[in-house]
Amino acid sequence: MSIRGSERRSEAEQIELKRSVDEFLEKIEHDPYQPGLIHPGLGVDDLQEIAEDALFLREYSEVVIRVRKDVDGFSVTAEVMSRSK
Question: What's the CA gap between 5 and 11, in Å, rounded?
Fold first, then answer.
């Protein structure tokens, strides 16, 4: 028995929908940019990665982060103050 084109398309659409829902749930459940979260021991280059992830992958239009130099003098701590879509 062969599968009709419309059945294949429907199956492909269901797979894509599940992928999109799973991706959305992952962003909500594992969002490291919730206000109040603190990210210690970062390198300065990590700040660029945070900006790219928050603004372009998670699609926030604005993220306010407080950055403090750690006592070791080499790393920084970033605290998420706020964010908006």
Answer: 10
Structure tokens at 35: 């206000």
Three-class SS state of 31:
coil
Q: What gap in Å lies between CA 54 and CA 83, rounded to an integer?
A: 9
- Domain positions in the chain are 1-30, 34-85
Which of the four pLDDT bands, split at 50, 70 and 90, describes residue 28? Answer: low
Burial of 20 (0-12, 13-18, 19+ CB in 10 A): exposed
Q: Name the phi and psi angles at 74, rounded to 5.
A: -120, -25
The answer to whether 66 and 81 are in contact (CB under 8 A) is yes
Query: Please, how many CA atoms are within 13 Å of residue 80, restricted to the half-sphere of its CB?
Result: 18
In this prediction the pTM is: 0.61
